[in-house]
Amino acid sequence: MRRLFLLGLAIVGCLSVGAQSDSIVREDPVIMNIAGNDIRRSEFEYFFYKNNTDSVTDDRTVQKYADLFANFKLKVASAISEGMDTTQSFLSEFKQYRDIAAEKYLVSPKRKEDLAFAIFNDSRNEIGEKGLYYVGVITLRPENRPELLEAAKRQLDSIRNCVVNGEDFRSLASRYSQDDFAENGGLMGWVSRNQLPDEFAAAVFDLELGDLSEPHFSYYGWQLYKIFGQQKFDNFEDHRESIMDWIEEKGLIQDLKLEQAREFAEERGWNISPEEALAREDSMLTELYPDFRMLANEYHDGLLMFDVSSREVWDKATADTAVLESWFAKNRRAFAYEQPHFKGLLLFARNEQALESVMAVLEGVPFEEQVEKVIAFNRDSVQVRVMKGPFVKGSNDYCDDIVFNEGESKPMPGYPVTGWYGEIQKAPAVWTDVSGKVVENYEQYLESEWIKKLRKQYKVKIDKKVLKTVGHHD
Predict the structure, then answer these.
(1) Disulfide: which of 100, 213, 266, 366 matches 225 by Cβ 3.0-4.6 Å?
(2) Could you tell me if 41 and 57 are in contact, meaning their C-beta atoms sit under 8 angstroms apart?
């Protein structure tokens, strides 16, 4: 989850933009130099506006973001200096993200949309104006003798009357039908008119949704049809997503890429195969599309930041519970409660005797094991119900009433006698009472110490004059 957050919303940057003409450099000045790498204003602005959801561009907001952005770049520089960007695992994961981002450039959205619409039109023409029917069928197959055919017709008439009078079509199909669909309750599934033999296509598609046919005779025998569902192909948007998924599933995207690459090669006079053109176009994406360059570099640096931060901060903060316990002991005041907490069980008993008995059972039992003791106590019959804390004062009506003697709570039906077992805390007793806050606080400490170290290790230069022009230039 951290990684998805980093790649979507966190402060992430990109590698320095490639070679530019002198005029572009003058129009896009260096805004900062981090660990020897120039960062230009366009790059900084790209990520500033991407991450600054309040759309505020005052000096204070820009300066605050610049400090965070510089810290991010320092972490990336640290990862690169250690060769983390050359490991096979990183290269493989980065390629995966990069290739996903590249696809919309190698296949234009319009080309993909046009193919989807063409498939929709072909399907609509093939299926017909009534669309697809979800058909149920009951089949009786007598021998071709007049008396047997007439008996089968009478039997199917009787089955039809049963359906009309409310009996389940599928149950009757399973019981009486003599075709392969009987084991599935007579359901044929989704079919188009063109998928059915002419012999009985008209009999089915003359029906409307929910209709039950009259008995119909063909060389298959006597049949009864019911229409359980209908999907019309008259609106592209209703089917667009499923068609797009089908295009991906069938590998048609590759065909579109090759088609676009062939055109790309023809425009440039390259006498090469579509496959070679596709590879060359892919290699040129960062040169052709500045927004792709930004996005690809964002993935590059974001993944590096995740890996190095995991090692320097997150893994350290969760690997050793003894360290967390010690950190909690040294910083107890940081974890004091703003409101009293109740750590224990709220008890609801059938009578006073049951409450006294369960209180005796709970005597000396650790908090983590108390509910199991109550469950064992209720083995023969439920004498006591419980609610397990911790509860903050003001967060639970029962707790406020029973423990803190404030407010009122509705009696629990059948369990009128109330009590509690546990302790009222003004501060957590052990670090696990506030484990999330302890981990977060320790991570903040590790992060702060790490940044101090990186600031000493690498130079950070921010051009304040250029910084003031962010959002205020042509």
Answers:
(1) 213
(2) no
Both tokens of residue 303? 């993944």
pLDDT tens, position by position, 17-59: 333 334 445 589 999 999 999 999 988 998 898 887 666 678 8
Give every CB contact of residue 332 below 8 A, 6+ residues apart in sequence: 427
Q: What is the pLDDT of residues 298-351, one digit of tens each?
A: 999 999 999 999 999 999 998 889 999 999 999 999 999 988 999 999 999 999
Cβ burial, residue 271 (10 Å; 0-12/13-18/19+): exposed
CB atoms within 10 A of CB 324: 19
Residue 450 amino acid letter = W
Reduce the DSSP state of residue 32 to 3 states and report it.
Answer: strand
**Torsion angle in degrees (nearest 10) through CA of 87, 90, 95, 97:** -170
Q: Tell me the C-alpha distance between 418 and 463, whole Å.
A: 67
Q: Residue 25 is encoded by which pair of tokens?
A: 């450099």
| Residue 420, CA distances (Å) to 138, 187, 345, 408, 434 in order | 64, 58, 6, 16, 22
Q: Find all residues with CB under 8 Å of 419, minimum gap 6, and list them.
A: 347, 349, 355, 359, 402
Of the candidates 312, 285, 299, 313, the residue with the CA atom closest to the CA atom of residue 85: 299
The secondary structure of 264-318, three-state, reads HHHHHCCCCCHHHHHHHHHHCHHHHCHHHHHHHHHHHHHHHHHHHHHHHHHHHHH
Cα angle, residue 354 at apex, residues 353 and 356 outer, rounded to 5°: 65
Whole-model pTM? 0.67
Degrees (nearest 5) of the Cα angle 55, 59, 62? 60
